[in-house]
Amino acid sequence: MANINLLPWREWERERKQKEFLGQVVAVLVFAVLIILATGQFLNVAIENQDGRNDYLGGKIKQLDKKIAEIRDLRRQREDLLARMRVIQELQGNRSVIVRVFDQMVHTLAKGVHYSELAMEGNNITLAGVAESNNRISALMRNLDGSDLFAAPNLKSIKEDPENSDYGEQASRFDLSFIQVNPNAEAEENL
Out of 3.30.70, 2.30.30, 1.20.58, 3.30.1360, which CATH number does the structure's domain 110-190 have? Predict the structure, then answer.
């Protein structure tokens, strides 16, 4: 029988398999590192793209915010102009009203009465005056109530004024208030 030593062949085979295994491990590690690097690069590119989109949207949002602010300013200016136009139209529409008020004041004035003060605040008219007697004040109030331009006469105070040289001993000072109404407003409401 021949003497064959198989031990070196087994060692060589073991070394070869170990080198092959280490080569495969290194190849897997290199492949894993390449996949990780590629995935990281892909994610970085995706993040940069998303950041670019976010910046673009942020710029567009800022532009829209500026336009919204301009629109608010324009609406505010429009409301201011509309308010001014309403005031002007109201003044134009009420231009003849004051003339009618004074004309009606003359027509409703009772004989033996004269006014010493007259004040108008909105639609409320307050007047002070002197009358020959209390009956003259009552006649004035009836005339005001019968007018189509005045309503709700209210006598606030009445005081005797016997020392009045114009009307004598029965003279009275009075304070009266009433409301100026628009007779056209009822006609407009009925339409």
Answer: 3.30.1360
pTM over 0.70: no
Sign of the CA dihedral running 92, 96, 102, 104: negative
> What ranges do the domains of the chain cover?
54-93, 110-190
* CA distance to 62, 100, 108, 132, 137, per residue, from 141 (Å): 67, 18, 8, 14, 6
**Per-residue pLDDT tens over the stretch 67-121:** 999 999 999 999 999 999 998 887 777 677 778 888 888 888 888 888 888 888 8
List the beta bridge partners of residue 177.
126, 154
Locate 72 and state its tokens: 């608010």
Structure tokens at 172: 């009275």
DSSP structural state of residue 175: E
Residue identified by tokens 């109530």 is: 145
- Reported as type and span, the H/E element at residue 41 is helix 7-93
| Angle (CA) 69 72 75, round 5° | 150
What does each C-alpha distance from 147 to 97, 114, 116, 179, 184 come to in angstroms? 14, 18, 21, 11, 14
Burial of 177 (0-12, 13-18, 19+ CB in 10 A): middle
Are residues 67 and 75 in contact, defined by beta-carbon separation less than 8 angstroms? no
SS3 171: coil
